[in-house]
Amino acid sequence: xxxxxxxxxxxxxxxxxxxxxxxxxxxxxxxxxxxxxxxxxxxxxxxxxxxxxxxxxxxxxxxxxxxxxxxxxxxxxxxxxxxxxxxxxxxxxxxxxxxxxxxxxxxxxxxxxxx
Length: 115
Prior knowledge:
- The protein is an all-alpha fold.
- It has a domain at 1-35.
- The chain has four helices and no strands.
- Helix 3 packs antiparallel against helix 4 (95-113).
- The N and C termini lie far apart (46 Å).
């Protein structure tokens, strides 16, 4: 029993420290916004801030990568993001298709042009 618990330790820590604190805020947010109008100024502002934050994180990942992603040329990373966006638009705003296409271009470009 002790060996099984030792092996499960990192997973339990991930659930307790990573998942549960995040899930509490998600549920609280869901409960608080149930009555809000989607076109209200507060919701529009929050959506704009969230979109800008996501765009900044993606730009940082693409332009100043670290680790294995840094070995892939920047133009391949930019091309992969453009391919993902194009696939997203063509597939009627399917996030799954956009991510899949962008990842496929990134992996193929990394296999061809990375040292």
